[in-house]
């Protein structure tokens, strides 16, 4: 961080700290605090980050774990007391564990009313932040850019033992067996662990996409779910228990629509989809023409089994057709609609493009294969879709001026009352 100014600014900003170009960032390792009620061993910190400009100083406590080592609740609580006693502005935890949806550490964090910013940065996120700066050519100094590239390369080297793969746990086979027999309720504890790992994978995937696309990429969450991860996790668990699958969405800036990812435990399949709302200023025929000419034709290499689903505004019925056939001829779409006996008065709720894949058999490849297929779906479909922009409303040309219209109205009123115009 001290060697690459832009990277240090990005990290300090993530911790809600001041990140101006004129600020000086210094980093210290193995720091022992003098002001502490704990013994020397407990008061030794992994690191401290100091951002200063003149007399204005911002200080963050840093706790770091590498490889498979995990953050510990008791140790975090001790650091929380140290941060409070020594007037720290922030606590930054780093490990290979994904953060909660509110960016807090994957621990039981309860410190209300505190001015201390508490944030967790996974090694995955730190790596992708560095790659984003490199991709955007945001590091002005050539030597600093080289240092950042080498640091990113070092993290990715397995011999460094800094990063570890995010994989499903030992519960995996038990979850699949319970799902196939519709007995997930009896394995709720294991299901909860799986859902937590799934949410962690989604966060990792958003970091990777953001580094490659250069824009904002986030899990699409409700406001309560953004503030509390447990609300989101509970919703996904309930979906699994009631429907045998769970659905999540990844929102990408400037994309036509979010990527919806449905994990079906019962069928052992992953469904990637994107839903497009038809233009409201067009009739049904023109909506279909718009879909084929303005959207589907941009998909030059359709994925195998890529489907177009037309959802109708009637009893949740839908029509399916292969995207390749829809691209080939618009009549193929119309014929599929006629085959389903869809009345001409029934409107289209939305168009959905979807692609189904099997879950990897090896436990170590479950999340990695989903990540690869997510990027493949984006590359083949999402990046080729356009956001619909309605035509600009136009003012019709009128041969009569507004003043003339007012005179005509006044004249008509006087004639009705039997009055004549004044001389």
Structure description:
The chain is 39% helix and 21% strand. The model has no long low-confidence stretch (mean pLDDT 91). Strand 7 and strand 8 form a beta hairpin. The protein has 13 helices and twelve strands. It has a seven-stranded antiparallel sheet. A five-stranded mixed sheet has the order 1-2-3-4-5, with helices on both faces. The chain folds into two domains: 5-160, 3-Layer(aba) Sandwich (Trna Endonuclease, Chain: A, domain 1), CATH 3.40.1350; 172-384, no CATH class. It is globular and about 90 Å long.
Topology, please?
Blueprint (H helix, E strand, L loop, with lengths): L4 H10 L9 E9 L11 E10 L2 E9 L8 H13 L4 E6 L21 E6 H13 L6 H15 L15 H9 L7 H26 L3 E3 L3 H5 L1 H15 L1 E8 L6 E6 L4 E8 L7 H12 L11 E6 L5 E5 H6 L1 H10 L8 E11 L7 H15 L21 H15 L7
Parallel strand pairs: 3-4, 4-5
Antiparallel strand pairs: 1-2, 2-3, 6-7, 7-8, 8-9, 9-12, 10-11, 10-12
Helix pairs in contact: 1-3, 3-4, 3-6, 6-8
List keywords for this structure.
423 residues, alpha+beta, Trna Endonuclease, Chain: A, domain 1, 2 domains, 7-stranded antiparallel sheet, 5-stranded mixed sheet, 13 helices, globular
Q: Helix count?
A: 13
Helix content: 25-40%
Shape: globular
User: Which runs of at least 5 residues are low in confidence (pLDDT < 50)?
Assistant: none
The tally of strands reads 12
- Residue share in β-strands: 15-25%
